[in-house]
Amino acid sequence: MLYSTQAFKLPRVSSTYHTVIKNIIITLLGSIAIALSAQFTIPLEPVAITLQNASVIILAMIFGPRLGVAMVAAYLIEGAVGLPVFSNGGHGLAKLFSPVAGYLISFLLSAYVVGRLQERGLCKNISGSLLTALAGITINFALGVPVLAIFIGWHKAIAAGFYPFIMGELYKLAFIASFIPNATKQISRYRENNNFGK
């Protein structure tokens, strides 16, 4: 009887172990994707235009809030400890207390909110994906601009940290809304079959 009980429990432990390993790997790969997107920049000052927020939103739409937030957290930790993962190869803990800190920290909340909306089924069509992406982008600016304003004042913060981004964000919204509905269906099916994020 003892042998039978052990035989019954071992597969469940093994399955949990493999799920944890999968989630760690996917989290690290996601953080690398965010880091790479940060290097595609238009080097404006004090805030460069990058693809970071788009990559965060897409990853959260695909993998949900838990893995989405974990990816962003891993990315921020990597940069804080000295890896050159921020825009233009930036790194160091000081970045998280700099004029762009609000944008970086906003990625955590953006990933959570976008992931939660995805869980509620909002990313199954173009209009839902558009609204979900818009929510994520709004969070980026809602946190990023006020922190920037602490350093340079509201007028300059809006002029440098919001207006230059408008056209680029519209392109990002259009791409995400057209790409995500089908992608989320395919990848969500794969996640369910392989226990990602569970």
User: In angstroms, what separates the terminal alpha carbons?
Assistant: 31 Å
Low-confidence parts lasting 5 or more residues at pLDDT below 50?
A: none
Assembly context of the chains = single chain
Tell me the major beta sheet: none
Highest CATH level, the class: Mainly Alpha
**Gyration radius over CA:** 19 Å
Task: Tell me the count of domains.
Answer: 1
**Total helical segments:** 6
Please state the average pLDDT score. Answer: 87
Helix content: over 70%
String of helices and strands: HHHHHH
Q: Based on helices, strands and strand pairing, what is the structural class?
A: mainly alpha
Report the count of strand segments.
Answer: 0
Strand content: under 5%
Shape: globular
CATH topology: Arp2/3 complex 21 kDa subunit ARPC3
Overview of this structure, please?
The protein has helices spanning 2-37, 52-80, 101-119, 126-152, 154-161, 166-194. The longest helix is centred in the first third of the chain and has 36 residues, at 2-37. It has 198 residues and is mainly α. The model has no long low-confidence stretch (mean pLDDT 87). The chain has a single domain, classed as Arp2/3 complex 21 kDa subunit ARPC3 (Orthogonal Bundle), CATH 1.10.1760.20. It contains six helices and no strands.
